[in-house]
Structure formats: structure tokens, C-alpha cells
Amino acid sequence: MRILCYGIVLILTSYYFYDVYCDSEKSVLEELGIDILDFTKEFTAIIDFYVEAQENPAVIQDSYLNITELIIKYDYPVQEHRVQTDDGYILKMIRIENKGPPVFLMHGLLMSADDWLTAGLKDSLAYQLASEGYDVWMGNARGNKHSREHVSISPETLEFWEFSWNEIGIYDLPSMIDYVINTTNRENLMYIGHSQGTTAFFVMCSEKPDYNNKISKMIALSPAAWIFRMTSPLVRMVAPFHKYHPILTHILHIYEIFPRPIKESLFTEMLFWTKTPVCEIENGLACITILFIFGGFDHEQFNMVNAPAIFGHAPSGASIYQFVHYLQNMMSASFRKFDYGEHKNLEIYGSTEPPTYAVDNVTVPIALFYSDNDWLSDVQDVKQLENTLPNVIESYRVPFKKFNHFDFLWSRNVKGLINDKILQLLSLRTNF
Questions:
Q1: Residue 397 lies in a domain
Q2: Which residues form the active site (predicted)?
Q3: What is the pLDDT of residues 221-237, one digit of tens each?
Q4: What's the chain's Rg over C-alpha atoms?
Q5: Tell me, what CATH number does 178's domain have?
Q6: How does DSSP classify residue 241?
Q7: What is the chain's percent helix, strand, coil content, to nearest 5?
Q8: Residue 352's domain spans which residues?
Q9: If both were cysteines, with which of 27, 29, 96, 375 could 232 make a disulfide (CB 3.0 to 4.6 Å apart)?
Q10: What are 144-193's pLDDT values in tens digits?
Q11: Is residue 343 part of a domain?
Q12: Is position 367 within any domain?
């Protein structure tokens, strides 16, 4: 039944893109300048490579290990730490201890600390940082698989899930950063965020400017603040319906998205199922739609050998309100706080419209990493962010045209294109 539902959704969205979203003579891919036949062939190659990758027993083992077991397997010391936020959420942090300066890694939407480790021993950023002597700390946002606790609220209730990335920036990041600084007896730390990990950081430093002094350097991978130019067709299709989220939360009692990692995860199941015959529907439009869901992977960069490990640890869950907040900002072409509606906005903010974040308060030295084929973090949106932030020291456009949103973590060339550049920036004695 689940597979049948996936099929119906995929077919309907494919027809939507083909007949409604675009001009009658063009599909959405053609509107974006993408050759449909070529793109379908790329997706077929991904599926074929995925099946072959499953024969790698070491990778299969990684898919079934939890995060501490995974780190121990590769002979790194690991610690688990529990951090309580000011509003009562219990967050798990993972540490690979070293004598060097602390580096804090913060994951993106639907992700967790695991995703800094699933590119393999040689290519995962966390392992590379640890090998260079850095004291590596990996955070987990409230609501993901590692942080589903509260001092008094059950995750089975709506109250637990009434947060977005605003609360992650206001409560989670400050609590974890203070914990790291206090534990290591350091004055500050270096911060690396991916996607939502950058959004929450900008929220924190905008709303709590004192935290600028606690961060010596910040590296933003696929930064997300202004996002209204994003080209992901799936997101653009869903965005106009964000106002109806109370139907999910208050009527259907659906509070979270992808609440747990499944060994044969949703992603894995969809990949296997779509090789045939769904890829034959509308010349492969269904497969293309799935690729959009994955964020635009291409077989030239995505390291499919590690796919079982990646999808064995992801997704890790998130609140519906995290998605809604992004969709609100996309539709309003702004970077502002959560929109509760006029009456509640007036009660909370003192105005009928949500206030915008004061990004010019973010004075931390920042390096922006972005790419041309990132459909969730458009180049022009990143440029707007760059022009607004007062202290951008490095703006790095990945020199590979097809590099996309998830390649910052899992590309087969992530070491040379991303991680080595990060290590170079971190090693500079000055703030970049």
C-alpha cells in the first residue's frame, strides 16, 4: 500500500510539472534548461550504480551501525553528551576529542550528526577534521532521531513539535555552543554548518549578537537565508499550500516528517521500485521527480558506493514547522520570523507581519560555499546574503557546474572540492 501511494504521488506530481506548472509546450526541466532525455539517463545510471554498491559489505555494515559504533569502527575516540536548552529540550552531541581547537558541525534539515560521517573514512569531513587534530563536536537539532526528549513534554504531542529553525537558532545552538566552550575551557570555537545549519546560525547571531564573540570563524556550506529564487520544482509546487499545514497538525495529527531512519529507508525503497516500470512513464518524468526529491543528485559527483550507508542513517526527522517556515520565506521573498497569522503575530511580535532577521548583526568572519546546480540554495540568493552580511571574508563558488545541494557532504570529490578548502581556511592564524 505504501508503495502504491508513492506511485500515485509521483505520477500526479509528474503530470503537474508537465501540464500545469510550466507552459503547455515545455516541461519544467526544459524551463530550467535541462534536457529531459539526458537527465533521465543520468538517473538510470544512478539506480544501476546503487544496485552494484549494495555488494560492498563494509558499506552495508556502516548502514546498520549507530553513530558511536560507526566512529569506533574507524578507530576514533567518541563521546556522547546531553545538553539541555533553556526551554527544556534535551539534545545529544557527539564528540571526537582532540587537543586542538574545537570545531562545531551543524547538520541540515532532516539530517543529523551522522551525515558528517557517512561519506566514508577518507571523505567524511568529521574524520578529516579529527585526523588534523581538531576537537570535533557534532550537534543535533531538537526533534531529530538523537534529540527527541524534553524535560516535561512528550514527543507524541503537538506541543513538542511546535518549533521551527527559529527555535533551533534561539535555543539549540546557543546551548550547545556554550556547552562546548565551557567543557573545553576555550573562549570561542569554529562553526561549520550545512543548509539549515547555516539558517539557524544566522538566526542566532541576528537575535543574540553576543554570540558573534563566541565564534572565531564560520563556514557556510550551501547557505540558506533568502531562498525565494530556489529552483527546486517540488518545493515550488508545495509552497503555495503551506498555509494549510494546520490540517496536518491539528486534524491528522501529523507533527513530524520522516520521524526515524529506516534500514530499507524511504529513499532506498523508492530507488529500487522506480527502475521499472515507473521510469517509463512520460519518458521518465516520474524518475526525474524522484531526483528532485533527492535534491538534484547527478551520477558524476554523488558517490553511490556509500549510498547504503548514507540512506541507512538518513533521514533523521524534523518538525513540519521547519518546512513551513522555509516555505513562508520563499513565498514572501524574505528572511523573517515564523508567520502565525495576523492575530497571533500581533500578540507575539506587536505587528501583523513577522519581523525580518537583522542579518547585519552577524559580524562573525564568514566563508560562503555555494554551487551552480544547488536547487535549494540559488546562486543569486547566496549573492544577496553575501551583500547583506557585513563580514564575508571568502566567497567560494565550487568549480564544478553540476555540484548540488547534497554534494557538499557526499560528493565523490568532496575532499578535493570542499573539505581541503575548509581545512585550509581553518588553519589560517587570522580570521581567514
A1: yes
A2: 195 (nucleophile), 374 (charge relay system), 405 (charge relay system)
A3: 999 999 999 988 778 88
A4: 21
A5: 3.40.50.1820
A6: G
A7: 50, 15, 35
A8: 78-262+315-427
A9: 375
A10: 999 999 999 999 999 999 999 999 999 999 999 999 999 999 999 999 99
A11: yes
A12: yes
Write out the catalytic residue numbers.
195, 374, 405
In a domain? residue 246: yes
For 14, 53, 78, 222, 303, the CA distances from 307, given in Å and listed in that order, are: 25, 7, 24, 21, 7
* Residues whose CB falls within 8 Å of the CB of residue 124, separated by 6 or more in sequence, listed in order: 116, 117, 118
For the cut 90, the answer to whether the pLDDT of residue 79 exceeds it is: yes
Start-to-end CA distance of the chain, whole Å, equals 53
At residue 176, φ and ψ (nearest 5 deg) are -70, -40
Alpha helices in 222-265 (DSSP H): 233-238, 245-246
- Class of residue 229 by CB neighbours under 10 A (exposed 0-12, middle 13-18, buried 19+): middle
Long-range contacts of 385-392 (CB under 8 A, 24+ apart): 385/223, 385/225, 385/226, 385/359, 388/225, 388/359, 388/360, 389/359, 389/360, 389/362, 390/360, 390/362, 390/363, 391/362, 391/363, 391/364, 391/365, 391/366, 392/366, 392/367, 392/368
The count of domains in the chain is 1
